UniProtKB/TrEMBL annotation:
Residues 152-375 form the DUF927 domain. Keywords: Plasmid. It comes from Paracoccus jeotgali. This is DUF927 domain-containing protein. It holds the Pfam family DUF927. Residues 689-706 have a biased composition (Acidic residues). Residues 13-22 have a biased composition (Polar residues). InterPro entries: DUF927.
Amino acid sequence: MAKFGLAELGLSGSDTRSNSGAAQMDVDAAPANQAETGFVAPGDHVAVQPSNGPTDAGDLLDADDVVSDLPGKGGETIACGDTGPAPRPGASEAAEPAAPAPGAEGPADAPAAPEPRSHVRDFHAQLHRALAGTGFRFDEVMGCIFNGDGAISGPIRLVNRASRINKTGQCWELEFLDLDDDLHRVTMARATGRTAQGSLDATFRDRNFNYFVAYDHLMDMLNSMKEVPRGWRVDHAGWFIDPKGPASFVRPTGAVHQPPGATPLVLYGADRSGPPPPGSLQGWQDEVATLALGNPGLVFAIAAALAGPLLRLAGIETCGFNISGGSGSGKSLFLRLALSCGSDPARLPPWSAAQTGLQHLSARAQDGLIALDGFPRDPDSRLIRALLAIADDAGFGRTVLPGDPDGATRWRRLLLSSSELPLAAALLRKRRPPPAALLSRFIELPAPWQQDGVNTAFHGAGDSLSFARRLEATMRRQHGHVLPAFLDRLVADLAAVEADLPRQIADHVDEIKQLWPGGRMGDARQTHAAAERLALVACAGELAIGWHLLPWPAGTAKAAVLRMAGLALPTGGSGGGPGSIGRLRDFVGRHEREIIDLDRATAITRRSEGDRDPPPEQIGWQDQRYLYLRPDAVRAAFTDLDALLAAWQEEDLLVPGGEKRSLQYKLPATKLAHRPRAYRIDRQKLAQSEDDETDLWLDGADDEAG
C-alpha cells in the first residue's frame, strides 16, 4: 500500500504525527494520477488507519460519497466528497472552480447546502478574524484549518488567556466545533509534557474533535491567534472581586455575569459543552412558577434557589434548610423545583455524594445552591463529618481543587436537604449531640405535603400525587432560565441591592421573630441567626418578583417565608413535629390507669407481673422517679417514634440504660423479675417542662386557615 499525504483532505505527507490519534491515509492500488498529484479522484477508495499502527484492513469509502466529516482518530472513517477538481499542489487557493460542461447541470440546479446554524456562522467569523495574517486559514467547506504544509485541525480558536490575580495558574480557554457542528468550550493549563498532551487529547477525543499535526504544532497555531483577550482565572464558582474593576459572578458551567467592560473571567475546569437548557424563561414562568402559587413550600423552594448570590452581600456564610417527612411527602419534589431555577432538576445528587466529594460540590456551589437528597436515618461517620463540615462553612472530602489543595477555603453555600428524620434526630440516633453551628445555621421545615393543610392548591390536579407528576413533567421541559436572568439583573443593579439589602433583612427578621416566642428557636443568638436566613430567602424572592422574573404578586415570597417560619421545628429540629413533649404528656395522661405503680405493689405482685406478659392495655410501669413505657405500646401510639425519642433525649426526658446501640432501659430484677425493656422517662422533668409548641402550632394553623 502506497502512503502519501492528501493536502486537499487536510493531510500532508510531511506532517509529523503524534500518537494523539492523528489519522494516516493508505490508498489501495493508487492510480498514477493520485501518486503524482496527491489528491483523490471520485470513485477511489480510501482506507483510514490509526496512527499507532496499521490494521489488516481499513474501512473503505467511495470518494464520491457526500462530504460529511473530517478525518477521525483511532480508525474512524472519513467521507471524501466530489467537490469538483481539487487544485494541484502550488495552484492558487483563489482559483475559480471549473465551469460546467455544456448541457450539464450547473450549480443552480444542485441541491442547496443547508444553512449553517447561527452559532456556527458566528464561530466561523470569529475564527477568520483570529487567523488573519497568521499564515493559517480556515476552509469552511472542509471544516479544517490549513497552513502551507497541509491540514492542522478542525475549527478551534483560543478565546482567553488567563491567570490568577497573583499571576500563577496560566491557562487557556478554547472553543471548538465537533464533527456535528456542536460548540464546546474547555480550559487547559499552559503546561508542557505528556501529561498536558494526554489530557487535551482525551478531551478532544471525548468530544469528537480531531487535529492532524504534532501537539506542539497545534499549540503554536493557537498561540499565533490574534484578538485574544487576557483575563482572570478563577477556580470556583461564585462572586469574583476584580482588584481593579467591578464584581462579577461565575456559574458552575463557566458562564460569567459581569457588567460591560469588565475583565474576562475563565473558570478553570469548567466544561460548557452540551445543548442549552430546554424551554425558555417565559415557558418556565408560565408552566412551572405558576404551579407554585398557593403552595408556600414550593414558593419557598424557588425563592431559596435564588438566595445564594445574596449570601456575601448579607454577610452570611452557610444557610441550610432541611425538609423532613415520610415517603411521598414531597421532599424530592421540593429539591427538584429549586434546581429547575438554574439547572437540570433530574440531576439531583443524593447525600452520599457528599461523603467524598463535598469539596468539589462546594466549589461548584460557592454563593449558590447545593441540593442533597435523602440524608439517612442511620448515617455513617463520613456523612456525619460532611454534615458538620457544611455547618462549619468548610469542605470535606477527597477531591482536591487546584486553587484549594488543603481544603482551607471557607465556603458560602445555601443547602437544601431532605431526610426522613430531622438532621438533629439522625445525629442523636448515633449518640452525636448536634453542635451549636448546626443548630444556628440549619432550619428544619416540614415537607410540602406534611404542612397540615397548608399545601392544598393542586391547580386542577385531583391530589398531591397527580399534581407532583404534572409539575415534574413541566420541569423536564422548562428549566435552567430564571437563575441566569436573576444574576444578570443582580450584577447590573449590584450597588443598589447591596445598599438596601441590610434594611430589608432587618425588617423581615423582626416579623419572623414574632412567630417564635418563648425561646422556641434557642437563645437570642440562635433565634436571630435562623431569622436572618429565612429573611434572606424572602428578599431573594421579592427581588425576583420586582424584576418581573417570577410571575407572582408582590409579597408572595415574603408571605410564604413567614408561613414556613411558623411551621419550622424548634431548635435542634428533632421533634418530629410540633408539641413533642406535650404529645408524651398527653399519651401518659390518657393511659394513666394502664401504668402500674411499682412502689405501691408488693414484692409478690412485682414478681407475678414479671412472670407473665403484660395485658395489651398496659403501657408500662412507674416508680417515684421514672416512667417505664413498653416499647411496643409506644411504637403503636407514635408513627414518628424515632424523631420523638431523639427530641425526648435532647430534653433529658428520656434516660437510656447505657447500652451503646439502644435507647431502652432494662429494668432490674428488684423491680420486675422478668426484667423487661422499656423507655425510661424522667417524671419530674416531664411535669416541670413547659410545652409551648402545641399552642404555637395551633396558632399557625389558624393563621393558615384564615
